[in-house]
# Entry
Amino acid sequence: MVSNTTDEDLWNEERLVALLKEGHEGAFRVLVRKYQQRLFKIAFGFTSDREESLDIVQEVFLKVHRHISNSFDEKSKLKTWLYRITANESFNLLRSWKRRLRRYHDPLETDDLDYFSELGTNDFAPDALYQKKELEEALQEALKGLGKNARAVFVLKEVQGLSYDEISSVLKIRRGTVSSRLCYARKTLRKSLEKYLDKDHR
Amino acid sequence: MKKAYGECDEELIGRYLDGEISQEEYDRIGRHLKDCPSCQKILRDNQGISTVFREVLGREVSQADFADLETRALGQIRQKENPWWERISKPAFSAKLLLPASAIAALILFFAIARGPATISGPSAVIEAFSGEVSSVMIIETPESRQTILWYKESS
# Structure
């Protein structure tokens, strides 16, 4: 009998997949705990929005639960499949009319309270903190300006440190295309962030 | 085509940074980087962007509510395992559903028989839009009236 433990080390991928196919709830919980942060980072790389990214990750897990029996190819890796679903869900969200509508009506002000929670620490340096925040915001904006193809490659590389072969497998594109899109993404980001990079990374 | 030693190659610098490079290319770019301040800057800037991006992601991860995500995801799969035709047979659920279902049916009947299909003429603007787990609502305003659109999500 399978125990309901959530100790990840006890669950190798093959066993996890087999139990997920049986609809085992303990296995599902292990899957969530093992991958939620990784998938969240990917989703956030696309959306730049915490709540939307959490919703995407939840949807990914539900899709896995529904489709692992008939859609998962045993020859591929579970993480590759998960990353692919996450990228697709993120693409879908980015082009959904509901999101575009909400973005259009978003207030201009942003809540900086979370960011400036560092103010109480000894490391507080207003100028440096402000510059860092400016750079981070500029990077988020620059990412939005990238096309979805270049952004996908950049996010998978930077977030998960995937190899070119793994990215090629997740996005179903050639390895050479991964290299050229990544080069394009980095070039575009450098150009957008030129003034900050000259200042901060000399 | 292979670029000659001394020639700047941004894509190769990227692959150098990612460790996706042959030994021969590694030696070539290594020699080139020593003498090329502009490629040194490209490498440094790429690393800088990567660092900032990862810091943003790290902070977001630390502030995201994963416990809630797990609870919601588990709740959803339990619901899937207990499908609607089983839930609808429970008395509490039936009572909860009966009133709104009757109201919606009455509205549909009213518009179908008395008014014909609702149409929107002239410019319109979205006043509110809500999206829930089961249903979504959008209220739009036209010069003549306000229209409420309600729809239910079908899960596969």
About this structure: Chain B has a mean pLDDT of 79. The helical segments of chain B are 10-18, 23-35, 37-63, 66-81, 84-87, 91-115.
